[in-house]
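User: Quick sanity check before I run a bigger batch. Here is a single chain. Can you write out its predicted 3D structure?
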Amino acid sequence: MTRIRRNTAHPLTRFVRASLAALLAFSLAVPALAQDDEGGRKTKQTVAMSQKVFEKLSEIQELMEAKQYAQGHAIVRELLQESKLSPYETAQIHNLTGYAYYLEENYPEAIRAYERVMQQPELPEGLQQSTLKTLAQLQFTIENYDEALATVRRLMAIVAEPSADVYMLLGQALFQKQDYKGALEPIETAINMYQEQGRIPAENWLLLLRVCYYELGDFPNMIGVLEQLILHYPKDTYVLTLAGVYSELGNTKKQLALVEALYEKGFLDNPTHIINLANLYLLHDTPYKAAKLLEQEIGSKRVDADVRNLRLLSQAWYTAREDEKAIPPLKQAAELSRDGELYVRLAQSHINLEQWAEASKAVETGLALGGIDREDTANILLGMALFNQKKLSLARKAFERAAPDSRSRRAAQQWIAYVESELKRNELMSQDMPQSTPRDVEDILQ
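Assistant: Done. Predicted structure follows.
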């Protein structure tokens, strides 16, 4: 839980103020359970606050809210010297003192003051409940989750039917102790109670439930929580999280639909999310959409024109059978990275377009740079590019370099045989034919 900063708008401030306003009533009379009578029954007594004590407490409250803390504490000390204070009046003095320390952001002293409230005998149940709630919140504030958990359990022990916010306090305490399985039931109970009353659960309640499901690996139940968050507290981050859950469950079609909808509505501006959308397009056999998306976003400079993104753009165009468009980004990526493997891929695109000279140049550059996974394949590509440029001897050498690799041996040998047949044919074609005399021609004709 995030640390509470002193702010008059904070829920804890509003809660304590409301408690004080209700409790500091003139001549307040509250039924309280006394000891068992002789018949074993609970009897009721009436607790009251004198006008003098009420006026002093009102004065202290005004001083504290005016930030005149020293004067307020001085009156508290004087008031506690009174010999005729009832336990209820003493409890209210400590109650107001705790509020004052809270305003000063002196949380340890505030906790001690509220503990002194709980030490008074025969307190009304309402005062006990409000004090324990405030005490638990303050213990959350100083991140003392063990004490907060113990306080919440004290509270639940005196409440016949705990309210939703009490269940949530228990869930929060267990959550902070990373007991996600234990936190799940009280958090679910609190949310269900709200929903049964026709009320919308608080956003942070739903977020706590979402994290519990996540930590427990319960992605199907996460979907329901995220759908509630999107319905009641619509944010693009929740839609993206839902898309991620669908990804975890292997439902990438729904993931694509959600991410694409966010992009089309202008809510997707994070480069990582845009790249993810492009990959989803490729995954679902829509490479043209991936290419157009990347081209537009790289052009607008929202996505960096780095090696990785340029490779992805080239792959998208290549998969979409747009070889001419695949070449420029791949060439740029190869030049940026000086990666031999990228030059081999570049050569393949050139070969697809029958750009033999560019293909052989790209392969040769790649082989010179090194780092190629399949040099045998690279040499096959080089041989093909050279062959189609009529550079047969060089082509044969390239195929011969590929032949020792068992994965390319058969293809290399077939190419070598074909190159040799072409070399022999060229040799025969280049031989001089014998000169025929007129007599020889006449003999042939006869």
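Confidence is low (pLDDT under 50) at residues 1-11, 21-46.

User: Great, the batch can go ahead then.
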